[in-house]
Amino acid sequence: MNTKHLTDDELQxxxxxxxxxDSTIVEHVLFCEDCKASVETYRLxxxxxxxxxxxAFDFDLSELVVKQLQPSPxxxxxxxxxxxxxFSFAMIIITGAMLYFFRGYMIxxxxxxxNFAVYLTVAxxxxxxxxxxxxxxxxxxxxxxxxxxx
Amino acid sequence: xxxxxxxxxxxxxxxQQVLDGNMHAYTQLIRHTExxxxxxxxxxxxxxxxRKDIAQDIYLKIHRKLPSFSFQSKLTTWVAQVSYNTCLDxxxxxxxxxxxxxxxxxxxxxxxxxxxxxxxxSSGVAVDTMIHKKELAAILKTAISKLPPVYNxxxxxxxxxxxxxxxxxxxxxxxxGTVKNYLFRARKMLKNELLVTYKKDDL
Lengths: 150, 203
Prior knowledge:
A: mainly alpha; 7 helices; B: mainly alpha
């Protein structure tokens, strides 16, 4: 008979499935009280683990998830939104009317200005637009990064 | 035929329904896999509020990635894989302890006899004769909670969910040998904790 006590690995294997063990190991456990006790402790441990309470979420996970996946319903137009739209519309109408009624003055104003002044204005607006676009793109990327769940 | 193969037609049908925009099917999918996800999330994440957020993140991610799921594995295994990786990312971000990051015990002692001799009772009587079932459950619960998150998860997947080493390997992305090694260490830690607690109570 093998007189060397079993290693933890062998003890675990024996406790999990005797069929996986060599006959020398099986024989040793039969005659060694210490190893037999260790095997029993492992078996007790395995039973104890399998009988542990299975954890469960204390909230309705499917409801929470599905709610987030549903397309958001069209929101009702609030009174403050209505006034905002009305104000914007009025501003567009007024600006359009002014441009229409004072078009003669406007043409005079621009025709009076030199070519250099027009180029300068156009260049300034173009540079500002480029900066605005870059800023918008950065904000968009940040928002997408925040949405990316992985 | 394996159980995993038997599940695939039903899984395919369910996935197709979800891809067609059927939210009821997705609710079914969540309910079908929730237990396994809870096992992983509870074992890896200790903070209850974070668990809630992570569980939702997992299923939102699964919904987003579902079109790329190619049935190379069981649906539950894939869901568990996404859950495990999401939890792992969280732990990495929080810089929490993972196996391989810190001390894991002296491998020289893994021949077991030193620890066994030191801890086991000299009369050769197994611990079960000394402690009641309820006490054992409580001691084990504490001992399991002290394990590193990955060990804790592996123990639950193997002993509670009765998954094979191969399935656990698929979920965690660890080689079979590493899964076996981590499980061995985790069990040994639990056994030692059990014996130490028993000895402490005995004094």
